[in-house]
Predict the structure of Membrane protein.
Amino acid sequence: MRSLWSVLTTRGRAFMGSGAVLVLAGVIFGFRDLTRFGVLLVALPIISAVLVRTRKTRMRIERHTHPERISVGQDAHVTLSFENVSSATTPIFLAEERLDYVLGDRPRFVVGRIPSGRVRAIDYAVRSHLRGRHHLGPLGVQVQDPFGLANRNAVLEGTADLIVLPAVHPLSSNRQPSAGVGSEGEQAQLISLHGEDDVTIREYRDGDDLRRIHWPATARTGDLMVRQEDRPAQRRAVVIIDPRPSAHGGTGASSSFEWAVTAAASVAVHLCDSGYAVHLVCAETVETSRAAETMTPDEILDVLAVATTRDDTGEDEILRAGQALASAGGFLVAIVGPSGRDVTSRVASLRQPGTTGLALVLDARSFGTTDAEEAEPHVDALRLAGWRAVAVQRDEDVAHAWAVLTAATVGGSR
């Protein structure tokens, strides 16, 4: 009886209570019709509870997300497919999809009867203002009798993941000269000292320019060999993100770390589109040993989608990984916070003579941390080491900060 009582709704319990009172009153005052009506009020909730508890159905749930990877602020459409794998038709039920809170309100919908072996699909949309790997499901189901006297709740296991990528801002490739003069007034040229030798030799084909014949290879092989069209050497770039909690300010989507991730995604995609072989150095790539690998824009965005701040003791591994890549030469971009002059000095030492280093120093105070260090001394330290560095405020746009940074002069001010 206790299990049946637990599935009764407020209406069902009210029916039970009212029926018991009417039965008692009918017996005391001798009104048989009143007693019969009371018995009916008591019996209806009991019958409803028994039907709700004993009716068994089995369903298979599948989720399909379109697209599977979205950017912050972009909509994703989810299709829920209900397949009835039992022999009986399912009752009408109320379904509620459980979501991570950043995806918005939980969608609720009424699902009609599904015959055996049939499939019913329902669509809903989600949007996230915060990047990351977010969960869809499990699905909560509520089965209720037609009178609303009893219901039964169940959770259908099974989840899916939705990857929300950081926003990518288009960055201008036009580098306007700064206000300085001479060599100090030239803006940052996005070049590196080391490239890859892409010159290749192949056999002569009809129509090839005879001026491209490679005589040493021809003499060595005995066949006509020609020099392949030279392709531009692929330049290397290293993008470094500071994951230390003490180097960042603010919380949630408005924190300086989220700004850093967005900036890193925008810069990395911009450099890939510009023909650079990009290395991403952050806590996640260092842990998986992927920092030494060149990555595609999609791979970079997937890593940055789940990037998080780490304990302050982890900067040694990140700096060592950055040092190993920077020692081979290349274009450096560092997105760091103003915490620890010794760490800033180590970052400054990553730039090799003759290479270009650009640094975005996040002003953690403007993002909400009042006890953070001032950004300007760290900017000055990087500039003295030959970097082009600027301080970034909370409300500053990534594209504007990049434009100012690429127009900055070595050792100069904004």
